[in-house]
Write a structure and sequence with these properties.
single chain; 156 residues; Peptide Methionine Sulfoxide Reductase, Chain A; six-stranded mixed beta sheet; two-stranded antiparallel ribbon; 5 helices; 29% helix
Length: 156
Amino acid sequence: MAIATFGAGCFWGVEETFRSTPGVTATQVGYAGGTMTNPTYKDVCSDRTGHAEVVQVEYDPAVIAYGALLDVFWENHDPTQVNRQGPDVGTQYRSVIFYHTPEQKQRAEESRGRLAESGKLKRPIATQIEPARTFWPAEEYHQQYLAKRGLSHCHL
């Protein structure tokens, strides 16, 4: 198994999207990229910790390639938004890829470049690509939040 970590707005919908992707064996929502040790949802929502809401994706590379996960990431949020997705505003909602290996970094940068050159987007891509640091799991009530409520998405 391998790990990938993505931030693409509110982690509830992002988790559900990846959870239902063939080849993904597990997901967990949490916080990454900030300065506070063991942050809570309240801490992260203060917009003072530097964390992004993220989904850590465990996947089987024999079933789904990292590049295919990147495609899911790009297709399911607006990577041109700076520190927001839809009605959610703040640095915790930024578009970010946290890479775990040099190969993931290379593939993320290549895929961002291809998307930027494709002409599909009217604005520049704001997605950050950063090394994965400590992943802090979110509180249990956030895990599989939409699935627990019988919902497939949370976008308006």
